[in-house]
Amino acid sequence: IHRVNECDIKRLRSIGIETLLLRTMKIADHVVFVSKWLSDYYNRKYKLNITSSAILNGVDRNTFFPKKSSLNQKVRLITHHWSNNWLKGFHIYNEIDKLLDTRDDIEFIYVGNYNTRYKPHNIKLLPPRSGRELSDIIRSCDIYITATQNEPGAMHYLEGLSCGLPVLYARGGGGAAEICNISGEEYTDIPSLLVKLEKVRNNYKEYVDKIPYEYLGKERCCREYYDIINAVI
């Protein structure tokens, strides 16, 4: 069984990862992609003749559990990334930083390593966090935002959802749309982001109530792998 969570399109330049992954796919009994988007990408590009499934990652819900459903008076946006790769969404995060010069009703907290091409002035930067320390920070906020591009199947927006936050996600975000569209809104640029932000803020409880907490959990993820293992055996 081969789990695939990578592709070259997520990078600015190829590192040849797809060539290596394709070699393993051909000898595996079953291939698991971490999103339907990634499965479609490989099947469309290489016309694969393999047995495969798409299984979304799972979250530890004992750590990432919901917050109270009420909004802060000053709406707090949050995202977190370990990588500072430009394609994690810094084209949007930098524009939000500039926008905050004129908006006193919005805060933005960034947890993790920030891209060095731009030094933000208004975003509250926090160093990388993990576990309960991270989830406590997420729960102190209202809306999760991700601007990641061509992401096969990340954990950050799953953890945001599991903490009870609706998600604003960028078009072209790869696998993000498959789960974030249940309790979130897609945007394309800063003007559309502001429109969607107001929509979520004005209907906040409705979005929170749609979060599929059980589906986000690691138990569901493990069951799906377990079923494949039994089928292969």
Notes on the protein architecture:
The radius of gyration is 18 Å and the shape is globular. With 233 residues, it is of the alpha/beta class. A 6-stranded parallel β-sheet has the order 6-5-4-7-8-9, sandwiched between helices. Strands 1-2-3 form a 3-stranded parallel β-sheet. It is built from 10 helices and 9 strands. Helices cover 38% and strands 16% of the residues. The model has no long low-confidence stretch (mean pLDDT 95). The chain has helices at 17-25, 36-46, 90-99, 131-139, 156-162, 177-180, 190-202, 204-209, 213-216, 218-232; strands at residues 2-4, 31-33, 52-54, 75-81, 106-112, 124-126, 143-146, 167-170, 184-187.
Portion in strands:
15-25%
The largest sheet is: 6 strands, parallel
Distance between the termini: 11 Å
Our count of helices gives 10
Oligomer: single chain
Keywords:
single chain; six-stranded parallel β-sheet; three-stranded parallel β-sheet; 10 helices; 38% helix
Write a brief caption for the model.
The protein is an alpha/beta fold and 233 residues long.
